[in-house]
Amino acid sequence: MTLARKTLAYLNDIETLVCEWLLALFVILLFAQIVSRQLFGHSIAWSEELSTYMFVWFAYLGSVVAAKMSAHNRVTFHMQFMPKALAKTLMTVADLLWVGFNIYFVWLSYDFVFNRMNLFWKSQTLGVPMKYFYMVLPIAFALMSVRVLWNTYLSVVKGEELLDPETAEIKKMQKNNDAAAVR
Known about the structure:
By secondary structure, this protein is mostly helical. Helices cover about 75% and strands about 0% of the residues. It has seven helices and no strands. The protein has helices at about 5-10, 15-40, 45-70, 85-115, 130-135, 135-155, 165-180. It is globular.
């Protein structure tokens, strides 16, 4: 694998890697807080606040990962009763509306973080300007838009069937059951 392909593969999975690190770090931090409080009778003042902000970043970047995997919750039951072309068209329109909302929200959150937020707002125990915690909003919604547009491209232009991991696993199990029934 060339260096360029390795770099692209790494960049493609950067949201997943950041989510994994955030999850691991805030769980470790909360565990340290519990141990410190229970065993030593001392509370780490900043750990709960930092864990909360890490969890918020984890949740928003997790929605980007879900968009990448086509795993966001959506009602698709009725699509199986429609012609495939109509179902694909409706899904494409829904995804484009979703991207439109995301872009609007990126604009609103960017304006809030960089233009309207008071520069003196700081987190209580960490003393870090709050804009660094709120920056997850424009970042996550912009990345989510990119992921949804890429999945729409793969679906509409390339003709790939994008399945969320759960649906893909169900289809795999059904295929294995069908193969076992034939034997």
